[in-house]
Design goal:
Layout: H1 2-37, E1 39-40, E2 44-49, E3 53-58, E4 68-76, H2 79-86, E5 91-95, E6 98-99, H3 101-104, E7 109-117, E8 125-142, E9 154-158, E10 163-168, E11 177-183, H4 189-194, H5 203-212, E12 220-222
Antiparallel strand pairs: 1-6, 2-3, 2-5, 3-4, 4-8, 5-7, 7-8, 9-10, 10-11, 11-12
């Protein structure tokens, strides 16, 4: 009887250990899979404002793992050349493949990067290769594609004592991505109630309505990626 009882205890212990190892491996595998999905190509659009410096915005999409609106203050290895590029129009950056969770978690790091005049996926021309340093996270929000309201909503990000960066909160398609620096003294809250979401989303229609809301000079506008 004692020997039989001892065998049952040993068997139960072995089953418990196997179950624990199995669960641990499942959790590790699930975590590793999630982290692996975030490793890849993550393009950025760069904008610049006097007295503030260079700001990089992760190019968001509806599809994972790109469904994040992440904005960082950055430094680049050749700011003089970049300054000339800003004068010519849109500037985008494509770092080597990296783990987006670094930006999600607000980490600071240096990464090798290609800098393009124009959109790197839409005919943009490679200008130079250097490094980009993510120095400070300014905004990190996940895109919620099932969210839509009658009025547009904007995140207001303080970037200096007298300026904020307005970032459109991307909602269910059709939607758009907008970045614009405004004076802190301006009534930014009114923009949320001034801009009414509409059925037709085009660059021209959005620019016109934002202009009517007092946002005349947009630093960045993207519509194509959010039509569907």
């Amino acid at each position: 009887m004692l020997r039989s009882k001892g065998k049952r205890l040993l068997l139960n212990s072995l089953i418990a250990v196997i179950f624990f190892i199995s669960c641990s491996n499942h959790v590790y595998a699930k975590k590793s899979h999630t982290e692996h999905q975030l490793i890849g190509s993550h393009g950025m659009v760069l904008i610049q404002e006097q007295g503030i410096g260079i700001v990089a915005s992760h190019l968001p999409l509806y599809v994972a793992p790109h469904n994040y609106q992440i904005i960082y203050k950055v430094n680049v290895s050749d700011e003089q050349q970049l300054k000339g590029m800003f004068a010519l129009g849109m500037v985008t950056a494509l770092p080597i493949n990296f783990d987006l969770s670094k930006l999600i978690n607000g980490e600071s790091f240096v990464i090798e990067t290609k800098f393009y005049q124009g959109h790197f996926e839409r005919g943009g021309k490679l200008a130079f290769t250097g490094t980009m340093t993510f120095t400070k996270q300014l905004l990190m929000k996940k895109v919620v594609a099932d969210n839509q309201t009658n009025q547009a909503r904007f995140y207001s990000v303080a970037v200096s004592d007298n300026k904020v960066l307005l970032v459109h909160k991307i909602h269910k398609a059709p939607s758009f991505d907008v970045l614009v620096f405004v004076e802190l003294a301006d009534s930014t809250d009114n923009v949320n109630f001034c801009f009414n979401n509409q059925k037709t989303y085009t660059n021209e229609a959005i620019r016109k309505q934002l202009a009517e809301c007092g946002l005349l000079a947009l630093d960045y506008l993207e519509v194509e990626d959010f039509k569907q």
